[in-house]
Amino acid sequence: MKLIFLGAPGVGKGTIAKRVVKKYGLVQISTGDLLREAVKRGTELGHKAKKFMDAGDLVPDDLIIDMLKERLSHDDCSKGFILDGFPRTIPQAEALENSGVVIDKVLELAASHDVIIQRLSGRRTCTQCQAIFHITNMPSKQEGVCDKCNGELIQRDDDRPEAIQNRLQIYETQTKPLVEFYTAKDMLISIDAGKSVDKVFKDTIEALE
Ligand code: AP5
């Protein structure tokens, strides 16, 4: 299974992708996680990407495409994968097609801006294992501590209000055109992501089976 999860920032792509990869034994490839790891390790890519990410802007296509191709060359991708947060522009989608990777389905997770802003502003992420929590929707047992690995939970720099507005605007102008791109290829399934995590997961599995 080779899938793309498409959707606005904070709609729940990462949360649902983690459950789907567990169920089917797939690999989750989050370009956001790969970039944050590069920033943490202080690589050249990390240095170049940081200023775009902190402002909520997209990292330039050439950097992202090279990073993704490198990740897709790893052996574990033969199990099948979910691309979470890629592609985000038409040139990225075209580069993926031209690389010969055949995607089975594109799942669009959709929710209102009010729901998304509530989710992003309360999100907390584990600095060690990348587990995702929410201060009210999915609180950790102990405030600031990851339930899974005891790592520190932090608020991402791009979950500040100014960056959130910018990310939502960029989604509308640069990423939303992909809905039409994949609909025209008869690959897109749209899921109402405004519901509970259990319900969105159930609907996602039904859409895949
Ligand atoms: P990235 O990390 O991909 O961020 P994003 O797409 O903005 O998505 P998020 O991770 O913010 O949200 P999500 O949809 O995964 O939601 P989550 O599951 O966490 O990218 C970050 C940056 O990297 C970009 O801004 C850009 O600079 C750069 N970048 C990455 N990829 C790129 C690319 N391809 N091209 C160029 N630049 C790129 O959920 C959010 C919160 O809601 C959580 O707290 C969660 O607990 C809660 N929640 C989730 N689902 C539910 C639910 N159903 N009910 C209640 N709460 C829920």
Task: Show the helix and strand layout.
Layout: E1 2-7, H1 13-24, E2 27-30, H2 31-41, H3 44-55, H4 61-72, E3 81-84, H5 90-98, E4 105-110, H6 113-121, E5 123-126, E6 132-134, E7 153-154, H7 161-175, H8 177-184, E8 188-192, H9 197-208
Parallel strand pairs: 1-3, 1-4, 2-3, 4-8
Antiparallel strand pairs: 5-6, 5-7
The protein binds BIS(adenosine)-5'-pentaphosphate.
The site of BIS(adenosine)-5'-pentaphosphate (AP5) has 36 residues, from helix 1, helix 2, helix 3, strand 6 and helix 9.
If you had to describe this structure to a student in words, what would you say it looks like?
The chain has 209 residues and is α/β, with parallel strands linked by helices. It is built from 9 helices and 8 strands. The strands form 2 sheets. The protein has a 5-stranded parallel beta sheet, sandwiched between helices. Strand 5 (123-126) and strand 6 form a beta hairpin. Helix 1 crosses helix 9 (197-208) and helix 4 packs parallel to helix 5. The longest helix is centred in the last third of the chain and has 15 residues, at 161-175. The chain is globular and about 45 Å long. The N and C termini lie close together (11 Å). BIS(adenosine)-5'-pentaphosphate binds at residues 7, 9-15, 30-32, 35, 52-53, 56-59, 64, 85-86, 88, 92, 119, 122-123, 132-134, 137-138, 158, 167, 196-197, 200.
